[in-house]
Specification:
The protein has 376 residues and is α/β, with parallel strands linked by helices. The chain has 3 domains: 2-104, ATPase, nucleotide binding domain (Nucleotidyltransferase, domain 5); 115-204; 229-329, no CATH class. 59% of the residues lie in helices and 11% in strands.
Length: 376
């Protein structure tokens, strides 16, 4: 099978074919369809490497339909292949490095989302854009009102336009805010359409309903989790999923010293932000749940910000376990796990105290022996 690599770009795509460590041909095209003469259905099938990016899924589908074996490369680990080495990084060089690495083997492969999950993620991205635009418009409107000495009433962004319309504003401020309120009303209408579409897509995903039984996790968070994880069975443990979403502490153990830092923040940043928001909602909720009790205990020791991130990480493990087992959220099971963790922590502290006590006794004896030697 031939070995080819593509370096995808917004304006052009560089390609490179190698065999036995030598470059056979290279070049660039402006569209994927232009690769038919190299990788089309009439040509011998090839093993093709492409880096994961926004257009990678489309390219993957096209090349696969032509009979090629497409390998999606994990960009977070592409430097180990030599990409960008010695400060040299161009489309031409990247394509060659990818092709040679593919031929050698051991290339870090990225997961290819299933078509249905891609569609779910696309609509979630549309919703995100609308929600963020609405929030920005509300912030701008409130700022303009404050400039004129007027504080607009607090409310949700969804009801902001209606509430402001009912306010007795002076003519100049009303004229100033009118374009923003018109846009807000339009966004609210479009948002309803998008959320209906998401509800339809989620209805074909039974797992979304199961995940949404978890406190603090609504249909949007559950759907986002499904659209990113895609297949729970591709992860062997909860810690693996937590690491995939960048919610585990970063670590540098080189040089014989182990340094633990803040969370790695790798993976999908939007899902990570949603999970942190879910954790805040649990922590601030007046309803006492095992998860909130657990987070409160962490907050007492480490502070609320650390507790929220720890709770978001724990939510990931719970959601993954629900998906893996096809079950629903079980508060009793979480309570038992939390209690077990608390007992383990208490036992650890007790063991540490005993160990320190033994150490202190030995140190005291050594000091006595030392003093006796000195006196004599």
């Amino acid at each position: 099978m031939r070995t080819v690599a593509l370096d995808l770009g917004s304006r052009k795509t560089a390609f490179c074919e190698v065999a036995e460590g030598r470059v056979l041909q290279r070049g660039s095209v402006t569209t994927v369809e232009s690769l038919k003469s190299l990788l089309g259905p009439e040509m011998p099938p090839s093993k093709v490497a492409i880096e994961a990016c926004r257009e990678a899924w489309h390219v993957h589908d096209v090349l696969s339909s032509w009979g090629n074996e497409v390998v999606l490369v994990d960009t977070t680990r592409s430097r180990r292949l030599g990409i960008g080495q010695h400060g040299r990084k161009t489309d031409r060089i990247d394509a060659e490095v990818l092709a040679l690495a593919l031929e050698r083997g051991g290339i870090p492969v990225a997961h290819v989302l299933s078509p249905h999950r891609r569609e779910l993620r696309r609509w979630l991205n549309v919703r995100r854009a609308l929600v963020e635009s609405r929030a920005q418009l509300v912030t701008t409107a409130r700022g303009l009102a404050r400039e004129r000495g007027r504080n607009l009433p607090r409310c949700t962004t969804r009801r902001f336009a209606d509430n402001v319309a009912s306010e007795n504003l002076d003519a100049e401020l009303a004229e100033l805010l009118s374009p923003l309120l018109t846009l807000l009303s339009s966004i609210t209408i479009e948002l309803k359409t998008v959320e209906d579409k998401l509800a339809t897509l989620s209805a074909t995903e039974p797992i979304v309903e199961l995940l949404a039984t978890t406190p603090g996790v609504g249909p949007i968070v559950a759907a986002s989790f499904v659209s990113v994880i895609d297949d729970a069975n591709r992860f062997h443990s909860a810690h693996h999923v937590e690491s995939y979403l960048g919610l585990v502490p970063s670590e540098d153990s080189s040089g014989g010293k182990r340094k633990i830092g803040s969370i790695s923040k790798k993976g999908n940043s939007y899902l990570r932000a949603l999970l942190v928001q879910s954790a805040w909602s649990i922590l601030r909720s007046p309803v006492v749940t095992p998860l909130r009790l657990w987070a409160d205990a962490v907050a007492e020791r480490r502070g609320k910000k650390v507790a929220v991130v720890a709770l978001a990480r724990r939510l990931v493990g719970i959601l993954w376990a629900i998906w893996r087992d096809g079950s629903v959220y079980d508060a009793n099971l979480v309570a038992r796990a939390s209690s077990k963790g608390t007992r383990r922590n208490a036992q650890s502290l007790e063991f540490r105290a005993e160990a320190l006590g033994r150490s202190g006794t030995k140190l005291h004896k050594r000091r006595l022996n030392s003093s006796e030697v000195t006196v004599s």
